Amino acid sequence: MSEFQPTSRTQVKRLPKRAHYDRETVYQILDTAFVCHVGFSVDGQPFVIPTNYGRSTDTLYLHGSAASRMLKTLSAGVPVCVTVTHVDGLVLARSAFHHSVNYRSVVILGTARLVEDSAEKMEALRVFTDHVMRGRWDDVRQPTEQELKATIVLALPLEEVSAKVRTGGPVDDEPDYALPVWAGVLPLQITPKQPIPDALRKNDPPIPDYLRNYSR
Amino acid sequence: MSEFQPTSRTQVKRLPKRAHYDRETVYQILDTAFVCHVGFSVDGQPFVIPTNYGRSTDTLYLHGSAASRMLKTLSAGVPVCVTVTHVDGLVLARSAFHHSVNYRSVVILGTARLVEDSAEKMEALRVFTDHVMRGRWDDVRQPTEQELKATIVLALPLEEVSAKVRTGGPVDDEPDYALPVWAGVLPLQITPKQPIPDALRKNDPPIPDYLRNYSR
Q1: Are residues B192 and A187 in contact, defined by beta-carbon separation less than 8 angstroms?
Q2: Among A4, A86, A88, B25, which has the minimal tally of Cβ within 10 Å of its Cβ?
Q3: In CATH, what number is assigned to the domain containing residue B148?
Q4: Which A residues 13-72 touch B at CB under 8 Å?
Q5: What is the ipTM of this complex?
Q6: Within an 8 Å CB–CB cutoff, is residue B212 touching chain A?
Q7: In a domain, B7, yes or no
């Protein structure tokens, strides 16, 4: 797949070996997470808010209540940054200084567009739902006209994008390798536990396969 | 424990029932995570960067290379937002509209102070290391004078702080409870896998207890 063109703002300066601009890496990081952190400024104060997202080719969709300050602010076309991060492990070195974290992250800069077309809006909602749990959309009651109106959907183009990835073990200073200190990586993983049925349920449909076999 | 005073900027407006301002909730969210997302603006463009942190009472410490653009920018005393998020589960409703996520997040607004005193700097590095893995600091080679100089440490006061927490099952519209759709919560948890010893090791110290029994 092709590459995103780094700009002066997305070119990774620190540890450029960790930088990636290819769509394959960017898509993989975006598609295996479902929570992003959205950064925007109000009166010179930055805010960083966690939210869900979905991706369709080179568009990232955000959504939320029409009453949300974040979405109202972003609808006005202010600059935004959306960051997605996976924490894959703790890197334990022999010196405090060389401790690190294995991670994969994507940073997207740009300006979001308010999605007004109702077909695109509905499709974005399908993308969200299936982004979090593939197959869920077809099982659930789909949005009514009123629910669509109560929801703001924003589209952020994937144009100014960079990824940063650290993998592998610690890199210690040569003399420190002789120290009697355990060194290596503690891998971390997000794992689903047993699904908890709604206490308010009035029926007992079977647990769908996409839930039983959930992984990211 | 006492409460943080909400300000016009940290008062949660959307879904205020989810808001918490007490130190107990804020500390618990901060202390069980170790990656935050830091928001700051450069030339009007917000950036959101994932990084590690540590907490000591009402101070959040950030650190990194003296070459880091983020830390150099923040050292100049610009407004910053630090957000910490736990994703605890997927909330599966009977309608697409009522799907949600169980989460715990803290948002901290303020201005960071450059830590110049070398004793405070060293203590902050101890706090970072033990924040990620309690007990690790005492086992590893501690920072040299040169490593301290290569590291920027910033202190962000916990003053303008809010937490937001969603727990529990889905809340569906009354008629939807009759739909034959599985509804409930899929809990998600960060779990450690088997530690991977460094391939470059020259000795085989035992795996320390704090690593063997790691949990957050």
Answers
A1: yes
A2: A88
A3: 2.30.110.10
A4: 13-14, 35, 37-41, 44-50, 52, 65, 67-69
A5: 0.95
A6: no
A7: no
